[in-house]
Amino acid sequence: MEQRRLGDSGLLVSAVGLGTNNFAGRLHDEAARMVLNEALEQGITFIDTADVYGGGSEEGSGGSESQLGRLLAGRRARFIIATKFGFPMGDSPLERGASRRWIVAEVENSLRRLRTDYIDLYQVHTPDAETPIDETLRALDDLVRSGKVRYVGHSNFAAWQIADADWTARTEHLARPISAQMHYNLLVRGIQAEVIPACVAHGLGIIPYFPLESGFLTGKYKPGGEGHGRLSESARAGGVMSPANFERIAGLERFATERGHSLLDLAFGWLLSQPIVSSVIASASTPDQVRANVAAAEWRLTAPELESVAAL
Ligand SMILES: NC(=O)c1ccc[n+]([C@@H]2O[C@H](COP(=O)([O-])OP(=O)(O)OC[C@H]3O[C@@H](n4cnc5c(N)ncnc54)[C@H](OP(=O)(O)O)[C@@H]3O)[C@@H](O)[C@H]2O)c1
Question: Which pTM was predicted?
Answer without folding.
Answer: 0.97
